[in-house]
Write a structure and sequence with these properties.
With 166 residues, the protein is an all-alpha fold. 67% of the residues lie in helices and 0% in strands.
Length: 166
């Protein structure tokens, strides 16, 4: 990558020298070539699309990371007793007892309602509107409870020695 960047910079210098000796007709084409070379050099050096103020590392998606691996959460719920009448999955024993204890410790920070909403969302992969219909609440309430639950879980994971050991 460094070699490619060095070649682009060298080509840019040569093109700028060529601009001095070019005719008026050729100068327009050479200026466009220079602009393209500078665009590529900026992209290679910064690692982001030139002209954008926010890079991918600052996107909101990274601020909304899930405290647990979603697949681990689904395995956790598949290994427990069915809680709802519509839950017809077969019980599986594919989660280790250590993972089970860590998840239960982290979920212990939630209220009963937050836990129920969080389980429905992360464990059973229901949409906010489906959860809202089941519980007769609004979708925004579901979203608020899940956000609150994730904050509590994240805090519990960072503070609990039991959750840190894994």
């Amino acid at each position: 990558m460094d070699e490619l960047l060095r070649e682009y910079k060298q080509t840019l210098k040569q093109t700028k020298k060529l601009l001095d000796r070019a005719t008026e007709q050729d100068k327009k084409i050479i200026r466009q070539m220079i602009a393209d070379l500078e665009f590529v050099i900026e992209w290679l050096t910064t690692g982001r699309y030139p002209g954008h103020k926010r890079g991918i590392e600052r996107r909101a998606a990274y601020q909304r990371e899930k405290p647990f691996d979603p697949l681990l959460m689904q395995k956790f719920f598949r290994s427990s007793e069915p809680t709802y009448e519509w839950d017809d999955h077969e019980e599986e024993n594919i989660i280790t007892s250590w993972d089970r204890q860590r998840i239960e410790d982290a979920l212990s920070a939630l209220t009963d309602r937050e836990r129920e909403v969080y389980l429905m969302s992360r464990g059973y992969c229901l949409t906010y509107s489906e959860i809202a219909n089941y519980l007769c609440i609004s979708s925004s309430s579901v979203q608020t409870m899940i956000e609150r639950a994730e904050k509590k879980i994240k805090k519990r994971i960072n503070e609990s020695l039991f959750c840190l050991c894994g």
